[in-house]
Amino acid sequence: MQILDAQKEKSIWPIFRLGFRVFFLGGALLSVIAMAIWAMSLSGIIQLGAIKNPIWWHAHEMIFGFTVAIIAGFILTAVQNWTGIPGVRGWPLAVASLLWFTPRLLMPLIGETHWLVILTDIVWLPLVAIFIALPIIKQKQWRNLFFVPILFMFTVLNALTYFTAITQNWLLSERLFIAAVLLITALIAVMGGRVIPFFTSRATETEKPEPIKLLELIALGGIWFITLLWLLLPHTQVIMKLLAILSLITAAAQLFRMLRWNTLPSLKVPLLWILHIGYLFIPLGLVAFAMAVGWKIVTVSAASHFLTAGALGCVVLGMISRVSLGHSGRPLQPKRITVIAFSIIILAALARSVGPLVLPDNILLIYQSSAGLWVLAYLIFVLIYWPVLTKPRIDGRPG
Length: 399
Prior knowledge:
Blueprint: H1 3-10, H2 19-42, H3 54-83, H4 91-110, H5 115-138, H6 147-167, H7 170-204, H8 213-232, H9 237-259, H10 263-266, H11 270-295, H12 300-326, H13 336-353, H14 355-358, H15 363-390
Helix pairs in contact: 2-3, 2-4, 2-15, 3-5, 3-6, 3-7, 4-5, 5-6, 6-7, 7-8, 7-11, 7-12, 8-9, 9-11, 11-12, 11-13, 12-13, 12-15, 13-15
């Protein structure tokens, strides 16, 4: 950056100097508040104000509030590295984050079917997609442009979930939420395949394995195919059996793919083992999904929490901890309390995914315990990383 750009940078409130700052902090804080409210509503301690369907609200906010905000923050930050063009910052970023925040705040006050909630929640993500697309197109980096249609897919799914809330078609809403979870899983698999082997190779001083094209096709293409089949085709017995078989094949490919990333040496490095353990929940979740749709051994909702509480919860906490340190000019050495948070989120994931299978008579206690552990883990992140994300880089560089 030129000196003039550096001067302009200093005039920007630090939290709006790069996308990871506001969306990592906002997303993590939302997950703490939303999960705490969810746990208290399960216990009958509080009611969710104007929300007509608390289950819909919980699923919607953890997917389209928390998760998609983290995705937006990650890509808005990464696009600067990909293209060499400074990422969106200042008032455009503030506008996007305000549009994200508004429906989160208003929904419990005026309900999930209010036009203002729906409008602001549908608008913010296409705006982020435009911010991402412009530098990629300018640099002709077509490989990374695929994130733009992914964000528009999330926008369409989000809009459709609001339609189900208006029409009270809860069966369709579950189908849409599961499709969004599968789409998120596919995105984690793509990004995980890019960064986890790279991070592991650098930190453990081991050779980065070259991708096997056929394995990548099965592991990644399998999830995309499963997502499309689940979303677009009728849920007949034949389709469900096909989904189950595809899920088992994809799970095996995902496990083999992950084990090639030098998983064992990574267990010595906290910023690595949280990613590897989190990623392990993807093949586990696909097996659970197969058991749900093919043989109804577990419910689809229970299977999906291997991917949400498990893969998503763990991988996100590990990634936002690492990215926040690196992009604030700090060494990649998390504080001890952050490592404890990694352990807590793994316990939360195990409680929510495995717990209902082994202790079906204590479902409410399991839900509350998992939610409490999630709140604790992400609250630690918020408290530890608040100064990291709200203050300038310690090396004086922009960003």
